[in-house]
From TrEMBL:
<keyword id="KW-0819">tRNA processing</keyword>
<dbReference type="GO" id="GO:0004526">
    <property type="term" value="F:ribonuclease P activity"/>
</dbReference>
<comment type="function">
    <text>Component of ribonuclease P, a protein complex that generates mature tRNA molecules by cleaving their 5'-ends. Also a component of RNase MRP, which cleaves pre-rRNA sequences.</text>
</comment>
<dbReference type="GO" id="GO:0005730">
    <property type="term" value="C:nucleolus"/>
</dbReference>
<dbReference type="GO" id="GO:0030681">
    <property type="term" value="C:multimeric ribonuclease P complex"/>
</dbReference>
<dbReference type="GO" id="GO:0000460">
    <property type="term" value="P:maturation of 5.8S rRNA"/>
</dbReference>
<keyword id="KW-0378">Hydrolase</keyword>
<dbReference type="GO" id="GO:0033204">
    <property type="term" value="F:ribonuclease P RNA binding"/>
</dbReference>
<dbReference type="GO" id="GO:0001682">
    <property type="term" value="P:tRNA 5'-leader removal"/>
</dbReference>
<dbReference type="InterPro" id="IPR038085">
    <property type="entry name" value="Rnp2-like_sf"/>
</dbReference>
<comment type="similarity">
    <text>Belongs to the eukaryotic/archaeal RNase P protein component 2 family.</text>
</comment>
<dbReference type="GO" id="GO:0000172">
    <property type="term" value="C:ribonuclease MRP complex"/>
</dbReference>
<dbReference type="InterPro" id="IPR002759">
    <property type="entry name" value="Pop5/Rpp14/Rnp2-like"/>
</dbReference>
<protein>
    <recommendedName>
        <fullName>Ribonuclease P/MRP protein subunit POP5</fullName>
        <ecNumber>3.1.26.5</ecNumber>
    </recommendedName>
</protein>
<dbReference type="Pfam" id="PF01900">
    <property type="entry name" value="RNase_P_Rpp14"/>
</dbReference>
<keyword id="KW-0539">Nucleus</keyword>
Length: 182
């Protein structure tokens, strides 16, 4: 049997709104890296990718990516996702995400999908998500009014949770499959 190999795409969803439509005086960093609305979830994200691949590459593209397409990680608070797709056809998924200009029907908000990293392992993709979230927190804290931002508090909680999970996984790997922390 041949093992199917995958690539993991780390995706950031950015929300570039023109300055005249902003309701508050948030810094550009916080505005662009704002949380994703609750109406948009991982299931809609997979459907969005499949529809876009079908539009760009037809039935051939759908056949090549549909069996291995999966959202491994979705964080609406940081607007970040890790998408698993077949190694030989990850460029199709990348191209499809590049052409997404708005979220589907319940949300209908203009977006830019940015592929941050392509990785061969989920571990490296997770490390990249944690590193980028920490950078966003540092830049947002540098803004003078950052203490009152609920988005910043939400992101800090997610980063702390991911860091704890990553440490537990590292201990499990180091101990040969059993968590020795208890």
């Amino acid at each position: 049997m041949v093992r199917v190999k995958y690539r993991y795409l780390v995706v950031n969803i950015l929300y570039p709104e023109p300055p005249e439509t902003r309701k508050t005086q948030l810094p550009d960093l916080v505005q662009v890296y704002s949380p994703t609305p609750d109406a948009f979830h991982a299931g809609l994200f997979v459907r969005l990718i499949r529809e876009q691949v079908e539009e760009l590459f037809g039935d051939y593209g759908m056949g090549m990516i549909s069996s291995g397409l999966k959202i491994n990680y979705w964080s609406p608070s940081t607007s970040t996702a890790i998408i698993r797709c077949p190694r030989d056809h990850y460029e199709m998924v990348w191209a499809a995400l590049t052409y997404v200009t708005h979220l589907p029907k319940p949300v209908e908000q203009p977006v830019v999908m940015r592929i941050v990293r392509v990785s061969g392992t989920i571990k490296k993709a997770e490390e990249e998500v944690i590193r980028r979230s920490q950078q966003i927190i540092k830049r947002a804290k540098a803004w003078e009014g950052a203490g009152e931002l609920p988005m910043l508090q939400s992101v800090e909680k997610v980063v702390e949770k991911e860091r704890r999970e990553h440490e537990v996984l590292a201990r499990v790997d180091a101990s040969g499959g059993e968590d020795m922390s208890d």
